[in-house]
Design goal:
The protein is mostly helical. 65% of the residues lie in helices and 0% in strands. The chain contains ten helices and no strands.
Length: 219
């Protein structure tokens, strides 16, 4: 009787398990990028941490930049889920803007490692270096478009607010950028200075949201 081996070649997953391997690779890459920096991390080191060969890793990602783009999109995916919930459950445009800002802050504080990697690390993938949040979003599956999708949703909410009769001091995209700049500074301060004796974190978050709304709304 012939016995057929069910052992898979090193680094290969059974059918249906490829998604698990992809997530393992992304987790290892994120850890190493944070620990050693993007430039010092090699594909070999990532593969070693996962326990596969470098050629096996290339079955999932063609290079380090592809890994970084996937991590960016994975990170923005968390925020996109929160924005979707706001759009489904909050009808008032002004309240949507506030809730969007709060969701951004909570997202950053809940995922500090991801925030450090995407917003605070020195390396920016070439694919988004020049276009950033203004990248075309006609293909939402394109690697690296996650940030642009989030910004597009914010501009859409601000445009709806203006259409409802509320006047903005600046164009919707400029208002969106101003909101991000201020909230990014708040999140960054909390992440980089966790032991600093801030007066009241929750009150600071509320105050920053109040400041932004007062600044972008024409009274």
């Amino acid at each position: 009787m012939t016995v057929f081996s069910t052992v898979l070649p090193a680094g290969r997953k059974r059918r249906g398990e490829g998604h698990t391997r992809r997530e393992e690779i992304l987790q290892a890459a994120k850890e190493l990028f944070l620990e050693q920096g993007y430039d010092s991390t090699t594909i070999r080191r990532i593969a070693d941490r996962v326990g596969i060969s470098a050629p096996a890793l290339y079955l999932y990602f063609k290079d380090k930049e592809a890994l970084m783009l996937a991590l960016c999109d994975q990170t923005f995916g968390h925020l996109i889920e929160s924005v979707g919930e706001i759009e489904r459950t909050v009808a008032d445009p002004l309240e949507r803007v506030r809730r969007f800002g709060e969701a951004y802050v909570r997202f950053g504080l809940t995922h500090p490692d991801e925030y450090r990697l995407v917003f605070l690390a020195a390396y920016i993938p070439e694919a988004i270096r020049r276009v950033g949040h203004r990248a075309p979003t006609d293909d939402p599956t394109k690697p690296g478009v996650g940030g642009a999708l989030v910004f597009q949703r914010l501009v859409g909410i601000l445009t709806e607010l203006e259409a409802s009769g509320t006047k903005l001091n600046y164009p919707p995209d400029t208002c969106g950028e101003l909101c991000w700049m201020g909230l990014h500074g708040l999140v960054t301060a909390f992440i980089l200075k966790p032991e600093f004796p801030w007066s009241d974190r929750e009150l600071l978050i509320k105050g920053m949201l109040d400041i932004h709304l007062k600044g972008i709304l024409r009274t």
